[in-house]
């Protein structure tokens, strides 16, 4: 490898929003010039909690690839793959599951958290419990040294290191121990001030049109105590101002002062934000339109990614099979 290798991925559960763009994709775009990158659509992972209804998974996979490309992931620089296209992920996951103690999986904090969050759902399955082993296989099959993640995924990266160490101890040195690279934290709330979440319906999608952005911003929650135009506002309780802090950095002090002194009204403040967001999204829209005008580009990107990733993954599996004498 001429550069250190990175692996990361997202589940195809729907269109991405600005939180995904700022929290992950923008970082990926920057990293692809410095590292050899494999970015995956991890469709098998989507089944760990969504196996009952797979009616939208094909469309979600396609939309996620389009989101990757429109954000600026360049298939000339990075491999974009669909997890299930590279069967070595499954083979390595099976082999690693043979050496992974059950207690390691049961103690994983994200496993316990999701059990609480999804209480009432039928998720007590082998696939759900073994999710971290599959994630470790995703990383180790490319011998990735670095994994860009959010803080909530740190236990999974530590488990991937433990599995790599156990394999290397039992057989022979095959895997590097992957290291996390924390994504830059961007505090972007939902449009109603709560955590940005699809389930709350308080997101702005990456694919939102100019008109959709204008409409969503016009309905964003502001300071509930500011009843009249002449009333001073409190920017710290306003979701519009929270967005301005992220996207309107050059003028954010003026916006704060104008709100606090009532020199600017909520309507004008929202118009400024909508204009700023549309300017930010315009390059993404242009790339998305170019993709739309090129039929078959998504399939071509995935086919090319699968072929190249398959070569890397098969070389790893050859090392694994030799080490395990199978």
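-> sequence recovered:
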């Amino acid at each position: 490898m001429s550069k250190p290798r990175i692996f990361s991925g997202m589940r195809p559960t729907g269109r991405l929003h600005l939180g995904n763009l700022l929290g992950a994709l923008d970082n990926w775009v920057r990293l692809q010039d410095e590292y050899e990158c494999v970015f995956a659509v991890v469709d098998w992972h989507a089944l760990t909690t969504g196996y009952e209804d797979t009616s939208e998974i094909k469309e979600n996979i396609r939309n996620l690839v389009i989101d990757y490309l429109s954000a600026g992931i360049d298939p000339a620089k990075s491999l974009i793959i669909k997890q299930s296209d590279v069967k070595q992920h499954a083979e390595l996951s099976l082999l690693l599951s043979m050496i992974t103690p059950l207690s390691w999986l049961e103690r994983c904090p994200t496993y316990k958290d999701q059990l609480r969050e999804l209480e009432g759902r039928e998720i007590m399955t082998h696939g759900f419990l073994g999710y971290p082993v599959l994630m470790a296989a995703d990383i180790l099959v490319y011998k990735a040294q670095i994994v860009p993640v959010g803080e909530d995924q740190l236990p999974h990266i530590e488990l991937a290191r433990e599995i790599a160490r156990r394999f290397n101890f039992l057989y022979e040195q095959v895997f590097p121990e992957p290291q996390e690279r924390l994504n830059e934290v961007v505090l972007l709330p939902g449009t109603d001030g709560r955590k940005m979440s699809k389930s709350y319906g308080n997101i702005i999608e990456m694919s939102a049109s100019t008109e959709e952005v204008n409409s969503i911003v016009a309905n964003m929650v502001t300071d509930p105590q500011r009843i009249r135009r002449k009333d001073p506002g409190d920017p710290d309780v306003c979701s519009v101002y929270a967005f301005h802090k992220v996207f309107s950095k050059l003028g954010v002090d003026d916006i704060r002062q104008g709100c606090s002194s009532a020199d600017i009204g909520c309507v004008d403040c929202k118009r400024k934000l909508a204009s700023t967001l549309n300017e930010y999204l315009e390059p993404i829209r242009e790339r998305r339109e170019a993709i739309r005008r090129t039929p078959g580009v998504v399939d071509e990107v995935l086919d090319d990614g699968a072929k190249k990733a398959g070569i890397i993954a098969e070389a790893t599996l050859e090392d694994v099979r030799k080490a395990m004498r199978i």
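DSSP finds 14 helices and five strands in the chain.
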